[in-house]
Amino acid sequence: MATAGKVIKCKAAVAWEPNKPLVIEEIEVAPPQANEVRIKIVATAVCHTDLHHLFEHTNEEGFPVVLGHEAAGIVESVGPGVTEYQPGDKVIPLFISQCRECHFCKSPKTNQCEKAWVGRHNVLAGTRLTCKGKNLLQFTGTSTFSEYTVVNQMAVAKIDPAAPLDKVCLLGCGICTGYGAAVNTAKVEPGSTCAVFGLGAVGLAAVMGCKAAGAKRIIAVDINPEKSEKATVFGATDFVNPKDHSKPISQVLSEMTNGGVDFSLECVGNVEVMRSALESCMQGWGVSVIVGWTDKEDFSARPVQLIAGRTWKGSAFGGFKGRDAVPQMVKAYLDKKLMVDEFITHNMTLDQVNEAIDLMKHGKCIRTVMTVSPQ
Ligand code: CU
Q1: Ligand 1 center to residue 47 CA distance, Å?
Q2: Distance 102 CA to ligand 1 centre (A)
Q3: How far is the CA of 309 from the centre of ligand 1 (A)?
Q4: Neighbouring C-beta atoms of residue 11, cutoff 10 Å
Q5: Does residue 340 register a pLDDT over 60?
């Protein structure tokens, strides 16, 4: 490519400070250094974690930043030491890296990676992106609300060249997170009864995962009655609106299921809902998985809930090791074994990012895919 080795000037949405609209700016994107890949982002979507950083992570240390982590693009150029990726490859950036060398990566038990940015304010303090003489932080090491970004090769999944990037971008976070939480973390069993709390993209993907795992009954729970129809598309058999009941939702579910569900998945990120999800599980063997993201509050429950045989777990990116699993998820979509298009409720361009953030903030979309560059 003609741009290889040179600084690229391009458009990006910059979050200069918390709680403020993003600003479309011209930024400079440095050439990739050793083990890095520069990617032309084709499509990206707003996810709750972006909102969490912008509106709830009031720590100024996390700014200025380029948000965005759910995306797909094309490799523009690679730095020294990169052999697995070449210019022209279609890729999905990963917010949880897979270095393949640390003790986590070598264990089949987890998708955590020692080199991941999660937990360190969720930002990579690099110097690859700059604007008006200032360094821009890279959210989760990715920063996809930009025409170009630079990502370490351990955080890149190479996907099928036939994949439509304006669809499979959603496999960069939400869909894999929910689907994997059901399949990998909860390990939903055939014939089981499941409950999914919260029907955003992650919750709907969890419903799809429960169905794929052979669950016989999938109870979708949301306070927005409009979500009912969509949940059915992904395989929900029942819909419960907690607002329709005066009893606690755990009691409602327990009565519906003769003692509780086998598996429950919390896809909201609310500590009260996490507790309800746990208490909705059958004693003896019920498994409850926390999928929704929050790091602001403590949660609580009575120890007897666990003593009585319930298991409480958490899941990040659905337990998937990204470099290995994301290409397989893309393949499953191309083979029509996985729904992706059904999550897209709006299409926009990067210039409309604040509108897309607004829709997400007010629960008015499942996913808004923003076109960033031509495919
Ligand atoms: Cu996300």
Answers
A1: 5
A2: 24
A3: 31
A4: 17
A5: yes
Gap from CA of 95 to ligand 1 centroid (Å):
8
Residue 218 corresponds to which tokens in the numbers above? 């999938």
Residue 298 sits at the vertex; the CA angle it makes with 199 and 124, to the nearest 5 degrees, is: 75
Q: What average pLDDT does the segment 220-237 reach?
A: 96
Alpha-carbon span 365 to 45, nearest angstrom? 11
- Let me know: does 346 contact 368? Beta carbons within 8 Å: yes
Average pLDDT of the segment spanning 91-105:
96
What is the whole-number distance in angstroms between the Cα of residue 66 and the centre of ligand 1?
Answer: 14
Q: What spacing in Å lies between the alpha carbon of 365 and ligand 1's midpoint?
A: 15
Cα(176) to ligand 1 centroid in Å equals 10
Instruction: Write down the pLDDT at residue 138.
Output: 93
Structure tokens at 39: 């990617």
pTM comes to 0.96
